[in-house]
Design goal:
about 240 residues; mainly alpha; about 0% strand; ARM-type_fold; DNA alkylation repair enzyme
């Protein structure tokens, strides 16, 4: 398996892929991208560059057919393409981008699908359209699939780390608290990640909900432990 680390290499590969696309159509483009890029080890920034090039080059009505086909291939790198293309579509097709992300995540069979797409779509949307996205996350927090719930945590972690406004972090933490007794491993991983990040960046929000967090019937040990880790990291950062 080749390792592709240079944007210039990806650019040259994509030029050849799009020659095939213009000659033989979308199916051929997908085959070429799979064989020349997704079947190799490629750094995530270069996969995002690939996604941006596809987004800019393909007509809008072929974005989602491209994504559907990439999703069916079930490659790790393909999830970066899906997340980035859907992210780029958020400004002009918010609802469908969220729905498609949820569709792909719900069909996951491994954890990294949730984290890769969740950060790039849910997280980016939460950071840039917080009020609208908080309502979407409230709705999706009732989703029956544990992968989607994990992805909500991954997205929340991303948005907080990137500077989500404190008032919105507070609203998101109330949603995280609703999962504080979750038993499912994947849900605990995603929600715990977001809870830890909340504590690291906003210990004052944790203080507001200290009674709920300390309540043994409302909050499981795993959730309290994630909060503790986040608070310790905040304290360590202040020392340095």
């Amino acid at each position: 398996m080749n390792v592709i680390t240079k944007k210039s290499t990806v650019r040259e590969i994509l030029k050849k892929c799009f020659i095939h696309y213009h000659q033989d159509g979308l199916h051929k483009l997908i085959t070429e991208i799979h064989d020349a890029i997704l079947s190799h080890k490629v750094t995530f920034p270069n996969l995002e560059f690939c996604a941006e090039t596809v987004f800019e080059t393909l007509p809008e009505n072929q974005h989602l057919p491209f994504c559907d086909a990439i999703h069916r291939l079930k490659t790790e790198g393909g999830n970066v393409l899906l997340g980035k293309i859907l992210q780029k579509r958020l400004p002009f097709d918010y609802t469908q981008s969220i729905e498609k992300a949820t569709e792909y995540i719900a069909d996951a069979d491994i954890w990294y699908v949730c984290d890769i797409i969740g950060e790039r779509v849910y997280g980016y949307a939460l950071l840039h359209e917080p009020q609208r996205t908080i309502q979407e996350i409230k709705r999706l927090s009732k989703h029956k699939t544990n992968w989607v719930l994990r992805a909500l945590g991954a997205g929340t972690h991303y948005a907080i780390k990137k500077g989500l406004e404190k008032s919105h972090v507070k609203n998101m933490f109330t949603i995280l608290l609703s999962f504080a007794n979750a038993k499912d491993k994947e849900v605990r991983q995603g929600i715990g990640w977001a809870a830890k990040t909340t504590a690291k960046f906003h210990p004052d929000i944790i203080a507001l909900y200290s009674a709920d967090i300390k309540h043994p019937e409302n909050t499981a040990y795993w959730f309290r432990k994630k909060i503790e880790i986040g608070l310790n990291r905040n304290a360590y950062a202040k020392k340095n």
